[in-house]
């Protein structure tokens, strides 16, 4: 079974600030490409639901947080 993570409310605030600095929307194709993930997974990330560990790290790396 794959390890999954979910962002905390504070973590989502930090990620949202970083996203705004980059000028991306929450489901931006540029963010998807940088994180190597899909729009559906980004939606789950922003909802604070569990996603795969590797994907979570990819999103945080793309947002530079």
Please provide a brief summary of the model.
This protein is mainly α and 65 residues long. It is 63% helix and 6% strand.
How would you characterize this protein structure?
With 65 residues, the chain is mainly alpha-helical. The protein contains 4 helices and 2 strands. A two-stranded antiparallel ribbon has the order 1-2. Helix 2 crosses helix 4. The longest helix has 14 residues. The chain is globular, with a radius of gyration of 11 Å. The mean pLDDT is 95.
Order of helices and strands: EHHHEH
Mean pLDDT across every amino acid position = 95
Strand content: 5-15%
Uncertain stretches of 5 or more adjacent residues: none
Q: What is the spatial order of strands in the main beta sheet?
A: 1-2
The counted number of beta strands is: 2
Largest sheet: 2 strands, antiparallel
Structural category: mainly alpha
What's the overall geometry?
globular
Number of helices: 4
What features would you highlight for this structure?
two-stranded antiparallel ribbon, globular, 65 residues, 4 helices, 6% strand, mainly alpha
Spell out the blueprint of helices and strands.
Layout: E1 4-5, H1 9-22, H2 29-35, H3 39-47, E2 51-52, H4 53-63
Antiparallel strand pairs: 1-2
Helix pairs in contact: 2-4
